[in-house]
Write a structure and sequence with these properties.
Elements (H helix, E strand, L loop, with lengths): L57 H21 L2 H4 L5 H16 L4 H7 L4 E10 L6 E10 L13 E8 L7 E8 L12 E2 L1 E2 L10 H16 L20 H5 L11 E8 L9 E4 L5 E14 L22 E16 L8 E9 L4 E4 L2
């Protein structure tokens, strides 16, 4: 995880020093749709202190989050996927591995991080245990991003974060599977029951069944990327977020010194049956928060008046001062959607975490 304040650093996970934030292509790309800003006091409820069916108490969960926060800083400074694999799994680990690769290629390896990296810490404000009679076990943690492990005051301009921790077997390590920057304005919606339930993908009590949200969002993003309207699931306020915005993705090619060419943005949904399956968690009073993963690509194609493109520095397999007729930048985005009860409004994106995947690829101009 990288913090969301500084370009070139990831979000809460990797902060200033080379913060694992969207490396390279998009300054703060790791937080694609997140609306960061003032961190108002959260009103989300925590579970009771007794271990629920989810198998973890609030006190235990807080210790797990604190340990993750500390070890995440160590992994970020060492730019080490091996270390990060002790605390992350699935999408979260895949995203950070790509960010580390780009950081090393960009000259921000361990030696550089040692004098530039600024640690950041997760301060837990809410815990949600998820009902489960077997493994994996899960719990959700909502946290603010702080500059000191002992401080409860969020860092200026930082985001709220939502983590999904999983334990795959008895006595197994608790690892982060999803990490999402969440809009401060959405925190009041995150009121959880004492022990949460993982809802089925075809749940008809919601405004849109979770299984259809991913496809709907992917379709809207693809239309938007070719000049169409912004996705209806996206609140207007997030377009101008101080942390990141869709515009950063759409104009990412210019951040690399692209000369010539135009970018087209396409998005496809990750199948719900895959390893990055859609997850829906009930919230108090009906409705759910839905975590879904999208594969996305930014494709830059040369135009007649500019027969080729060149870049200022290496990006994956793309080399500086080499002529390319097309370049593809892959992204993986974990999007968080508030899905209200049926008949009570429409779903809206309340947070996300996006990472440029390794490697970018290109077709050389002949």
């Amino acid at each position: 995880m990288q913090n969301g304040n500084k370009a070139g650093t990831k979000s809460m996970h990797k902060r200033a020093k080379g913060y694992k934030t969207c490396v390279g292509i998009v300054g703060c790309a790791s937080i694609l749709l997140a609306a960061c800003g003032s961190t108002a006091n959260a009103s989300a409820k925590t579970t009771s202190s007794k271990a629920g069916i989810g198998g973890v108490t609030v006190q235990q969960a807080r210790k797990i989050v604190a340990q993750y926060s500390s070890e995440n800083n160590a992994s970020n400074e060492a730019v080490s996927t091996t270390l990060q694999a002790q605390d992350e799994t699935g999408y979260a680990l895949e995203a950070d591995d790509s960010i580390y690769r780009y950081e090393i290629q960009d000259g921000r390896g361990p030696a550089w991080q040692k004098t530039h990296y600024t640690p950041f810490y997760a301060h837990t404000i809410a815990i949600q245990s998820i009902q489960s009679h077997g493994w994996p076990k899960r719990f959700i943690a909502i946290a603010t991003e702080n500059t000191s492990p002992a401080s409860s005051a969020p860092a200026k301009g930082s985001c709220h974060w939502l983590f999904v921790f999983v334990q795959n077997h008895p006595q197994g390590q608790w690892r982060v599977k999803s990490e999402l920057a969440v809009a401060s304005s959405a925190i009041p919606k995150l009121q959880f029951p004492p022990v949460g339930t993982l809802l089925p993908g075809n749940d008809r009590s919601l405004a849109v069944a979770p299984n259809y949200l991913s496809e709907q969002l992917a379709s809207q993003l693809a239309i938007w990327g070719t000049g169409g309207p912004s996705p209806s699931l996206l609140p207007a306020s997030t377009e101008s977020s101080s942390c990141a915005s869709l515009a950063l993705i759409k104009n990412a090619s210019s951040n690399y010194g692209l000369k010539g060419g135009g970018g087209t943005f396409t998005a496809t949904a990750v199948p719900a049956s895959g390893p990055q399956a859609i997850q829906s968690y009930e919230i108090q009073g009906g409705g759910a928060i839905v975590s879904t993963v999208l594969n996305m690509k930014l494709i830059s194609v040369s135009e007649p008046r500019y027969p080729y493109m060149t870049y200022n520095h290496a990006i994956g397999n793309i080399l500086p001062n080499v002529h390319y007729s097309s370049v593809t930048f892959p992204f993986l985005s974990n999007v968080l959607v508030y899905d209200p009860p049926r008949g009570h409004g429409q779903p809206e994106i309340i947070g996300a975490y996006i990472s440029e995947l390794w490697p970018a690829t290109g077709t050389k101009y002949n």
